[in-house]
Design goal:
Blueprint: E1 2-5, E2 8-14, H1 17-23, E3 27-31, H2 37-62
Length: 65
């Protein structure tokens, strides 16, 4: 969820139990360094996408025969 804290946006989201071990964390928390909601949303989406790609690639690499 995006939150305006002070004058800048932050993103915080709890990771579902099924994915905690895979991601190695229990939540995602980002300081987005902007006071513009649109920019904050773009940065949040980019970070989540990057995290997902890194996770999938890491999972595939660890499960290769």
């Amino acid at each position: 969820m995006l939150q305006l804290i002070g004058s800048h946006y932050h993103f915080r989201r709890t990771i579902p139990q099924d994915f905690k071990a895979l991601l190695g964390r229990s939540e995602i928390s980002l300081f987005l360094r902007t006071d513009k909601k649109l920019i904050a949303r773009e940065r949040q989406e980019a970070h989540i996408h990057e995290l997902w790609i890194d996770t999938v690639l890491g999972y595939e690499a660890s499960h290769k025969s």
